[in-house]
Structure prediction request, 205 residues.
Amino acid sequence: MNIGGLQRFSLCDFPGRSSAVVFTQGCNFRCPFCHNGRLIPPDAPDGAIDEAAVMGFLCARRGQLDGVVVSGGEPTLQSDLAGFLGRVKRLGFAVKLDTNGSRPGVLRALLKESLVDYVAMDVKAPFERYGDLAGVAVEAGRLRESVAVIAGSGVEHEFRTTVVLPLLDAEDLAAVQRQLPSGSRHRLQPFRPETAMDPALRGQA
Prediction:
């Protein structure tokens, strides 16, 4: 696992649970509004965090934390993601996975192996506009497949959209809602402009 960051305690990243957040390094999207731009390159600019140190920290927090969130970057790009999640589960933690949904095959395998207890997928825009918000060409079929895999998994989940008003309007947000299953939670989250990857967005409210 290529780990670029560790948040040792959170009460807001895993619904209903106290957690630590592990940030994987590397992402296949280039969202102009991304507030974690340092996690996009495959190699951490300040150096990777040793996985053994992370596991040692988690071992010491058994009985104190309820869960571990694996975020990014994009975690499904990590070749040892399944192994890492298995090790976390064996410590007794619940696991939440944050994903951009670009690798439905990985999601399906993780869910089949019961390695994930909660999934949050970012749905950035109406599928026909996805490239504008993801910053790269995106195969919409893969995103639709991930939505279906997650919604049909029986695992707690949510879909979430960052409300980037310079790039999305009310019609776009309504279109995003229509492309999601009616029984799944869709959460709108605020845009954090101060650290947006695109400097032109940093002055937006």
Notes: The helical segments are 51-60, 81-90, 104-112, 130-134, 140-151, 170-178. The mean pLDDT is 96. The chain has six helices and seven strands. The longest strand covers residues 3-14.
